[in-house]
Structure formats: C-alpha cells, structure tokens
C-alpha cells in the first residue's frame, strides 16, 4: 500500500499487513507490556534514559530535557542503523511507532527516510493501536460460531484442542494465549503470564486468522484465566454457543493431571503457596492435609482428593450456570491418556464439525 508523500498512516487492520517491518521505538519496559503484532523493539531511549529525561523535564526545564534527550536519541538511532538495520535492502518499508506517534517515532522515521527507506509513522502511535484493539474485541467475537469444549478438571480439554488443531480444525487456545491453565495450580513453570493488554493483542491476532464460515473450538473458561480477563463480548458469545462435553475416566483424569502438574513435584514451596489460595474456600485444616500428602510424595492421593473436594464440586456449580446450553451438549469419551487416543477422538470431532458446516451450507434459503 503506497501512501504517496504522506509520512504517517492511520491505524487499520490493513496497515498491520502492508509494511515489511513494524518498529517499536518505545523503551523496553513499554514494549514488554504490549506491542503491535510482530513488532521489533528498537528503542530510541532505554528505560533508564527515559526516566532521566522525564526527571530533567520536571525538575530542570523542558529545554534541558530536549537538549540531553536529542543527544541520547541520536546515538541510539545511529547504533540501530549501524547494527540492527544494516542488512535492509533499498526498497525496505518499515512502519515506526512510539507512545503517541510523536517525537520518538518521528526521529527514527526521519533518519530512515533520509537514508532512502520509505518509512512511515503510525498516527496516534501505540495509543491509537490500543483503541483499535479494544474496539475490535467488542465486535469481532460475534462473527464466529464457537463450539465450547467442556469437561471436568483433568479430562484433557486442552490436549483435545491441540489434537483438533493438528486434525485441521479451527481452534482458539485461550489458555495458550494467557500462558495459564486456568485453575489454582494452572501457572506454567518459567512462563509468566502476559499483561492484560498483551493478552488482548494476542487474542485479537488469533481471532484475525480464523474463518467465520467454519466452526471454532474453544475451551469453556471463566471470566478470568489466572490474572488476565476475557473481554466481555467474547465470554458472552461463548456462553451462548453450542457445547461439547468431554468425558474421561477417573484414572485417565488422574494420569493427565499428574503429567500436567509434575513441575510441582520438585517445587514444594510453589505448590504450598498455590494451595494456600484455597484456604478461604475450604479450611486451613483441609489445606494442611493436602500439603501433608505433597510432603509425603503421595501425588496420586493428593490429586484424587483435590478432584473430589475442590475441582469437581466447583465445576458442577459453575458450568451449567455459566453455559446454559451445556445441558444439551453432545458427549464424547476419551479412551485413554495417550496421544493416539486424543488424535483419534479429535479426528472424529473435527469430522463432525465439518459435516455440520457442509449441511448448513447445503440447506436451502429459509431452512
């Protein structure tokens, strides 16, 4: 998309696809919180430099802040041109943005244009992108026909979604986007959750590649997955959608949970901290009993008790209340905890979904 002599472009879905690269010139801390999909961080001020300039602006004068800041920005831009951007071809076209689309992005884009690259800045910067995300997440979920996968804790819902994706079905993996399994023990080892804003950016990008004409399988979630919250329009659309109930034997569920949570076996401190979160829902005495089982290494008994005393009652209370169509859901049974059982079940479920789509497409108008 050529924009003539204009040096900036307005935020749109097409803009995200129309440049060879997206350069985020904000500080690393700003970039870590959230960024445009596929953006590369080339800060013109790092975190310490940005704090220093802010202090000068407030405590000395705007002129002094601009004088010192200009030298820092110039040195950082020179380093990026010499190293990070050294291999870019003559026709390379980057989109550059900062917080509001002002001085930081303008400085780098100006230098890039002087070199000969067709660099543009994003009008309104990251703030314009953030408004776009919020507005898009209010309307986009309603375009899709979700099939919500339910099942008691440990029945293998996340594993089934992965197998469905392998089988060619469309899947929205909310727990993958949130880097959390959704339960009190759901934190992933060595994988912190994204910020709320970054989660929403990932969610919008994931929705953007889905085909509204095909069903989308998604796990039935509460409003929160760990520390992030699902947008209201998405949770409302999911709760009105058709459901699929995944059944598994108790032995299969225990086997899957022991595999999923084995990182707690070597980190008793983290496990105890998570179990302490349940004191308000149960009693201190019961939580101490669970901790004692963990200290003894009796993991199977611990999982059985957590299922019977916490997870299963919680699921029964919340599932039918939050998903009114669960009562009419089709049930499918996982034969065992091995990969082939998931693959076999996923092929069956995916095939039915495509058959339903075909029947709907073939139905006469008004049917």
Report the principal-axis shape: globular
Please compute the radius of gyration using only Cα atoms. 25 Å
Largest sheet properties:
5 strands, parallel
Remind me, CATH topology of the largest domain?
Answer: Rossmann fold
- Listing every helix as H and every strand as E from the N terminus to the C terminus, the arrangement reads EHEHEHHEHEHEHEHHEEEHEHHHHEH
**How far is the first residue's CA from the last residue's CA?**
42 Å
Query: What oligomeric arrangement do these chains adopt?
Result: single chain
Work out the strand percent: 5-15%
Mean pLDDT: 93
Number of domains: 2
Q: Helices and strands in order, then pairings?
A:
Layout: E1 8-9, H1 13-17, E2 21-24, H2 28-33, E3 40-41, H3 47-59, H4 62-82, E4 94-97, H5 103-115, E5 120-122, H6 125-139, E6 146-150, H7 157-166, E7 170-172, H8 174-178, H9 196-208, E8 216-219, E9 224-225, E10 228-229, H10 232-239, E11 242-247, H11 250-260, H12 268-276, H13 284-296, H14 299-322, E12 330-333, H15 339-362
Parallel strand pairs: 1-5, 2-3, 2-4, 4-5, 6-8, 6-11, 7-8, 11-12
Antiparallel strand pairs: 9-10
Helix pairs in contact: 3-4, 4-5, 6-9, 7-15, 12-13, 13-14
């Amino acid at each position: 998309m050529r924009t003539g002599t204009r040096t900036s472009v307005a935020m749109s879905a097409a803009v995200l696809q129309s440049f060879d690269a997206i350069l985020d010139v904000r500080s690393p801390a700003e970039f870590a919180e959230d960024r445009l999909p596929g953006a590369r961080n080339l800060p013109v001020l790092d975190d310490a430099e940005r704090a220093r300039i802010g202090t000068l602006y407030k405590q000395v004068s705007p002129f002094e802040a601009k004088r010192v800041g200009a030298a820092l920005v110039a040195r950082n831009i020179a380093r990026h041109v010499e190293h990070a951007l050294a291999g870019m071809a003559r026709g390379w076209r980057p989109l550059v943005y900062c917080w509001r689309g002002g001085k930081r992005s303008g400085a780098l884009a100006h230098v890039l244009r002087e070199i000969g690259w067709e660099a543009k800045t994003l009008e309104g910067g990251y703030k314009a992108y953030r408004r776009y995300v919020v507005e898009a997440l209010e309307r986009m979920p309603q375009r899709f026909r979700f099939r919500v996968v339910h099942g008691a804790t440990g029945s293998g819902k996340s594993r089934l979604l992965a197998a469905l994706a392998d089988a060619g079905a469309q899947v929205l993996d909310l727990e993958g986007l949130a880097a959390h399994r959704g339960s009190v023990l759901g934190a992933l080892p060595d994988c912190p959750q994204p910020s709320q804003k970054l989660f929403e950016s990932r969610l919008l990008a994931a929705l953007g590649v889905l085909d509204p004409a095909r069903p989308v399988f998604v796990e039935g979630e509460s409003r929160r997955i760990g520390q992030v919250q699902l947008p209201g329009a998405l949770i409302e659309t999911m709760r009105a959608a058709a459901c699929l109930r995944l059944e598994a034997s108790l032995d299969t569920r225990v086997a899957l949970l022991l595999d999923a949570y084995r990182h707690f076996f070597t980190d008793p401190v983290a496990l105890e901290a998570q179990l302490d979160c349940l004191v308000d829902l149960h009693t201190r005495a019961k939580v101490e009993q669970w901790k004692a089982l963990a200290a003894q290494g009796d993991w199977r008994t611990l999982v059985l008790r957590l299922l019977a005393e916490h997870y299963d009652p919680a699921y029964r209370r919340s599932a039918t209340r939050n998903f009114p169509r669960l009562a009419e859901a089709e049930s499918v049974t996982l034969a065992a905890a091995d990969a082939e059982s998931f693959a076999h079940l996923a092929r069956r479920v995916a095939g039915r979904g495509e058959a339903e789509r075909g029947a709907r497409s073939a139905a006469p108008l008004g049917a």
